[in-house]
Specification:
Distance between the termini: 28 Å
Shape: elongated
Number of strands: 5
CATH superfamily of the largest domain: CBS-domain
Number of helices: 9
Strand order of the largest sheet: 3-4-5
CATH class of the largest domain: Alpha Beta
Number of domains: 2
Structural class: alpha+beta
Strand content: 15-25%
CATH architecture of the largest domain: Roll
CATH topology of the largest domain: CBS-domain
Radius of gyration: 23 Å
Length: 181
């Protein structure tokens, strides 16, 4: 939501739309937009709210979606997989973590970190399920890259779904490599 009506002009220009286009999509007149942007009119809350909501919708439409940067070839482990097999798989594909998937559902995450922590405990861990951490979050493929980036501040990877099925994943590396092209 816009706090100051003077922000309307800045956001509108960032989106590359005219006053007329914004007015039409917001259901207000172009002259109202012009007066607000020039500071000649102190608009009502409802008018600013309409314009603000329209700008937010337009901003979201133009943001890159997760489906555009996700990796669709998911390399995963099964809970019963031997840790040594998981390590070989991670080495082979040059990855540092992978989701643990059972019957199409993410049940955990195995990473270099979780394996190293298990080794440090000197306990006889034999299977992935013994050392896996919680499953990574699942977001819809229509989510914005901005949403995924916020989640990646807390998780090493984010799974991407379509109609409840896992379709891909996004890592921090994917965002850095693909989102800013």
């Amino acid at each position: 939501m816009i706090n100051d009506p003077r922000e309307i002009k800045l956001i509108r220009r960032q989106l590359g739309i005219t006053q007329s286009e914004l007015a039409k999509k917001s259901g207000v007149s172009q002259s109202l937009i012009a007066k607000i942007e020039s500071g000649r009119l102190d608009p009502s809350f409802t008018k600013v709210k309409k314009i603000s909501e329209t700008l937010e919708i337009l901003r979201n439409e133009r943001q890159k979606k997760v489906r555009e940067i996700m990796v669709t070839r998911i390399i995963s482990a099964k809970p019963e997989m031997a840790i040594s097999e998981a390590i070989k798989k991670m080495k082979k594909h040059n990855i540092s973590q992978m989701p643990v998937i059972e019957q199409g559902v993410a049940v955990g995450l195995i990473s270099e970190t979780s394996i190293l922590e298990a080794l440090a405990e000197n306990k006889p861990h034999r299977q992935v399920k013994d050392v896996m951490s919680d499953a990574p979050p699942l977001i819809p493929e229509e989510a914005t890259v901005e949403t995924a980036t916020a989640m990646l501040a807390h998780y090493p990877l984010v799974l991407v779904s379509k109609k409840g099925k896992i379709k891909g994943l996004v890592t921090r590396s994917d965002v850095l490599q693909k989102a800013f092209r």
